[in-house]
User: Fold this.
Amino acid sequence: MHSELLQIGGITLHSYGLCMALGFLLAWQVAVWLCKRSGRNADQLTSLITGMMIASIGGARAAYVIEHWKVEFADNPAAILRIDQGGLMFYGGFIAAALFVLIFIKLRKIKFFEVSDVLLSVLPLGHAFGRIGCFMHGCCYGRITNGALGVRFPAHSPAWIEQCNANPPLIEPTAAQSLPVIPTQLIESGANLLIFAAMIYIFMNHHRKLGLPSAIYLIAYAFMRFMVEFLRGDPRASVGALSISQTISIGLAAIGVAILLYRRNEISGPETRTPAT
Assistant:
């Protein structure tokens, strides 16, 4: 865990922010490349991604603050602004970015799936880097484990704080490290990279079947996230027996299936050429 990479004067470079920036830039470049390969408008995509980035950060932070208000922010509201120190909820950012996309394509009169197929094909790449940032910061950790893959986070990390504040406490305040926990951040990062590889293959071979890449991403990520949630050990908001992220995952998977049904004639039939825009 290396939450702070270096300090230059009074400026601190946090690993979480760096990983987010790298993930965004790489995903952006791959998206531009996919646009050029498939005859889409790369310049238009750049304007869209810039707005999406702002919307997604705001939505992800808002969702995280709501879910962790009592634990992290009730006694220190000023910490809400410190997104450089980690604390973003993917689904909050995803929903906010999706709303921005809907408004953007409505104003620009663009076909929805021409945009969503590109964006969702590269999203898991950026997300994989974001989860590495989570690991470096120590947030989004897993359940306590005695397995060989367990990792210990240092004193004052989120896992250490949670274990100290448990009732009864799981570790003493003098403990140098947390109890070993499942590295769910790295598990999800690796899974996102696998999804990204699959999405690139699907897009490159079926990008004219509008809606197919979008549907496959929604189903694949929703399934993966639903399963990873069982391994998470950080405080989670719940909806009945499920976490809020599992509930959203079910909804996203349903949307993915609905897209496949709605576009089944175009997806199962011969590919239609996507005109350059």
About this structure: The longest helix spans residues 42-67. The CA atoms of residues 66 and 73 lie 9 Å apart. Residues 4-143+182-268 form one domain.
